[in-house]
Structure to design on (275 residues):
């Protein structure tokens, strides 16, 4: 299916729906056998938010994501729950800090004009963006293999995360309605999208057409990077300011990922990029 154009009017409408008080609320679950019952309740809630037939069908077809459930059932298995140095955090995914930094610098050089334009518009330096991009998907090399809708709904259903991520599950259904994703589109285990691994609600709130083709697509690197810069700026990023730990900009990174390990690693890597 060819994705439909994402207009500012559509995004504003959906964002407004996400911020509205739901007429119905689905009950969280702690047992996998309760997942279908949760989906039935979520369907009523989603319909009250204006989710259409395509989104509701994707919800009906969603299956409990085993990897998402295992992560939520065992928080200690998640890399962000144990304190690690930035070097340890980066090398848990990459062969070395130097290989990560060199990979980030390569992307920065390849699209120098683009990153300069992004910084001029949003105030977010390219070093921060390529660090996030690299850590999330190895600069687009791997964007995930979990069905997005199933991952988002599974995350929202689990009591430890509910209802914090329920708006992202509903947003994923809205994205199906828009034609931007399908019920079988794949991403991260918690329903993350595309190059930068956005949660669906954040994509709807902050989506930017960075490529100039008339639509915002999380699987387009230019759109994803521009949207990331827009999200950081919207959460208080200060142009030209320090992003060292303890700074205002460092605190803004918590809007992207609430893991202190993650924030320290991104700030550390970004500080090395381009030196």
């Amino acid at each position: 299916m060819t994705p439909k154009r994402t207009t500012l009017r559509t995004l504003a409408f959906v964002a407004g729906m996400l911020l509205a008080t739901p007429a119905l609320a689905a009950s969280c679950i702690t047992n996998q056998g309760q997942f279908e019952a949760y989906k039935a309740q979520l369907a009523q809630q989603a319909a009250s938010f204006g989710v259409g037939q395509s989104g509701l069908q994707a919800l009906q077809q969603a299956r409990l994501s085993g990897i998402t459930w295992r992560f939520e059932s065992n928080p200690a298995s998640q890399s962000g729950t144990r304190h690690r140095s930035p070097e340890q955090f980066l090398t848990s995914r990459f062969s070395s800090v130097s290989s990560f930094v060199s990979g980030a610098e390569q992307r920065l050089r390849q699209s120098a004009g683009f990153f300069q334009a992004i910084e001029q518009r949003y105030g977010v330096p390219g070093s921060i963006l390529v660090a996030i991009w690299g850590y999330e998907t190895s600069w687009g090399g791997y964007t995930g293999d979990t069905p997005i809708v199933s991952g988002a709904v599974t995350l929202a259903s689990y009591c430890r995360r509910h209802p914090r991520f329920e708006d992202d599950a509903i947003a994923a259904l809205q994205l199906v309605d828009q034609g931007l994703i399908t019920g079988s589109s794949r991403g991260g285990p918690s329903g993350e999208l595309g190059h930068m691994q956005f949660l669906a609600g954040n994509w709807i709130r902050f989506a930017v057409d960075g490529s100039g083709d008339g639509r915002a697509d999380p699987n387009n690197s230019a759109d994803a990077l521009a949207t990331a810069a827009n999200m950081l700026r919207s959460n208080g990023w200060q142009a030209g300011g320090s992003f060292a730990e303890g700074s205002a900009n460092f605190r803004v990174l918590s809007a992207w990922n609430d893991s202190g390990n993650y924030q320290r690693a991104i700030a550390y890597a970004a500080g090395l990029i381009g030196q």
About this structure: Residues 8-75+144-206 form a domain with the Helicase, Ruva Protein; domain 3 fold (CATH 1.10.8.350). The two ends are 44 Å apart (CA to CA). The mean pLDDT is 90. The chain has two domains: 8-75+144-206, 84-142+209-272.
